[in-house]
Amino acid sequence: MGEPSDKRPKIDVDECTGCGLCVDVCEQECIDLVDDVAKTVKPEACTGCGDCVEECPVEAVIME
Ligand code: SF4
Ligand code: SF4
Question: 13, 29, 38, 55: which could form a disulfide with 25 (CB 3.0–4.6 Å)?
């Protein structure tokens, strides 16, 4: 698991393929697929670890 950070993931819906890898990797269950696109459904639980960013094969997750 990555280091906690103040940054939070933002998903580029135009790039997301809906593969679900970021959903699976997030230990806090912050991300889910909504209409086949990743969405941060529980942003308050996010630790900013960045694991979802590293997991995404198309770089659709950006920390900001
Ligand atoms: S940064 Fe970490 S805790 Fe936050 S959504 Fe991504 S994997 Fe989950
Ligand atoms: S890992 Fe990337 S492409 Fe796959 S669902 Fe998540 S944001 Fe979309």
Answer: 55
Tell me if 1 is assigned to some domain: no
Distance CA 27, CA 44 (A): 13
pTM: 0.95
Q: Which domain holds residue 37?
A: 9-63
If DSSP codes are grouped into helix, strand and coil, which group holds residue 45? helix
Could you tell which of 29, 33, 52 is best to mutate to test the pocket of ligand 1, judged by most ligand atoms within 8 Å of the CB?
A: 52
Q: Give pLDDT tens digits for 3-43.
A: 899 999 999 999 999 999 999 999 999 999 999 999 999 99
